[in-house]
Amino acid sequence: MMDDERMTGSFQVEDLDMEGDKLTSRKPSSVVYEDPVADLLLKYYSKITMDDNEMVRFVFLAAPFGIIMFFYMFVSNSTSSMISFTAFIVSLVFLGVSMWMLCEILKKDVGPRSMQDIAEVIREGSEGFFMT
Q1: Which residue of 13, 44, 62, 95 has the fewest CB atoms within a 10 Å radius of its CB?
Q2: What Cα–Cα distance (Å) separates residue 80 from each residue in 13, 77, 83?
Q3: pLDDT tens, 86-108?
């Protein structure tokens, strides 16, 4: 594309892709993706309300240590079983942390319409990539 075309206004800069080719017009997508799993997670997350309740937060932080101590004192005090049980509890804790982070992300606003249009194009491109 020539610089004089930019100056004359025959093309708008927003209507060009990275190579300078004119973009085709796209109709904005009105597809709304519903996610029942995300809705269920957010429903349970809103019931817990860890942000406001310090006692619930303390219980979630102290419970793994209490469970490990209970296992050591009353179930088995051998080293191999203690290591495997501790690894199991730590993995459950990190699954809980990942669910908490997921709910924090899902709770955020989806953004303005222009950002949603761009996200739709990216989603279509990624789906096309995985189909090949």
Answers
A1: 13
A2: 66, 9, 5
A3: 999 999 999 988 988 888 888 88
Closest CA to 38 of 96, 97, 104: 104
CB-CB contact of 28 with 119 (8 Å): no
Give the SS3 label for residue 15: helix
Rounded distance, CA 60 to CA 53, Å?
11
Measure Cα distances from 59 to 42, 56, 66, 69, 89 in Å: 20, 5, 10, 15, 15
Is pTM beyond 0.70? Reply is no
Q: Break the chain down into helix, strand, coil percent, rounded to 5.
A: 70, 0, 30
What is the spatial distance between Cα 28 and Cα 57, in angstroms, rounded to a whole number? 43
